[in-house]
Amino acid sequence: MKQEKNNARRKFIANLGKGAMAMGLGTSSSFAFTPKDKLSTKKEVKIGFITDVHHGYCSDALDRLDVFIKEASSRKLDFIIQGGDFCYATKEAQECMDLWNSYKGEKYHVLGNHDMDKVSKKEAMEFFGMEKNYYSFDKGDFHFVVMDGNYILKDGEYKDYGHANFYIDQQNRSLVNPEQIEWLKQDLEKTDKQTIIISHQAFDEIWDGWSSPSRFAVRKVINDANNRTDYQKVIACFCGHHHVDDHSYINNVHYFQMNSASYFYVGDGYGSDGSKAMYKDSVFAFLSIDPSGQISIEGRQSQFVKPTPMEKGHPDAPRLSASISDRSVGFKSKV
């Protein structure tokens, strides 16, 4: 009798296993549902990026911003961000702020040098609604750092940009102050997420002599952070300011220079609008950052308004573009 009971029990278990296989449940390591700790919440972070709109300097800046806001509003984005040189931060620019704020989703500001042409840094921040001039935030699996490269060095002290006080020698402007360098170090130590840094001025070497003189200090913090972890903590840096479309790769970090929405400054005698080589269309981009290890840029392409820098014989014409290129680059993912 005992043997019969054991045989019946084994038969029951065997039939149960067959039923499980028929239902697609598999072995004991498989489930009809995914355990909570195996659920994947990882997804792409999608961003709308526009920079150097120059409201108050470009006559059609509002129209260019409007194109971006309408396109961004038609997409499912995690946030939009403007990379600086947005407007003069005076009452005449309220129309620019109203249009920006018409976007219903999350939105962020980066301070640009020309935002302080007519006001102090504090006044510009108040106009934009910025609580801090440099800050960080998380979105999905990523950490984002917004930096402020708008300091001058005068009489041995780092001073805020304000009222166009930055028209001085390049080595004494476009600086990141020491307190911010220390903050960046601590901020990166506090997060375990892979990080993207966004600034107005560049921390790369694309335009020799014009990147931020603080780039070496910033890159040291980035390299130290990456060397302290068994994964790539800082994966990319994005900037505006230089009105060029370019990409470089330094110590396993991608550096993207994002083109202006409006123009390239070519100087007297070379522009289609005074000293500006205007773009026919509003230029901006949509970024997608995938935790699996991919950064994709969907850029907007345009052309120079005639006469073009090439037609005018500008010495840098072969390097100039009226677009943001589509790009797809990889990075070493955390997982």
Structure commentary:
The protein is of the alpha/beta class. The chain has two domains: 1-39, no CATH class; 44-330, Metallo-dependent phosphatases (Purple Acid Phosphatase, chain A, domain 2, 4-Layer Sandwich). Helices cover 24% and strands 22% of the residues. The protein has seven helices and 16 strands. Strands 3-2-1-14-15-16 form a six-stranded mixed sheet, covered by helices on one side. The protein has a six-stranded mixed sheet with strand order 4-5-8-9-11-10, covered by helices on one side. A two-stranded antiparallel sheet has the order 6-7. Strand 1 (45-50), helix 2 (61-73) and strand 2 (79-82) form a beta-alpha-beta unit. The radius of gyration is 26 Å and the shape is globular.
* Order of strands across the main sheet: 3-2-1-14-15-16
- According to CATH, what is the topology of the largest domain? Purple Acid Phosphatase, chain A, domain 2
Number of separate domains: 2
Number of helices: 7
> Strand fraction band?
15-25%
Task: Using the 3D structure, state the CATH architecture of the largest domain.
Answer: 4-Layer Sandwich
Mean pLDDT: 90
* Structural Rg: 26 Å
Beta-strand segment tally? 16
The top-level CATH class of the largest domain is: Alpha Beta
CATH homologous superfamily caption of the largest domain: Metallo-dependent phosphatases
- Spans of at least 5 consecutive residues whose pLDDT stays below 50 are 1-40
User: Span between N and C termini?
Assistant: 55 Å
Shape, principal axes of CA atoms: globular
Bin the helical content. Answer: 10-25%
* Major sheet attributes: 6 strands, mixed
Give the topology string: H per helix, E per strand: HEHEHEHEEEEHEHEEEEEEEHE
Helix-and-strand structural type? alpha/beta
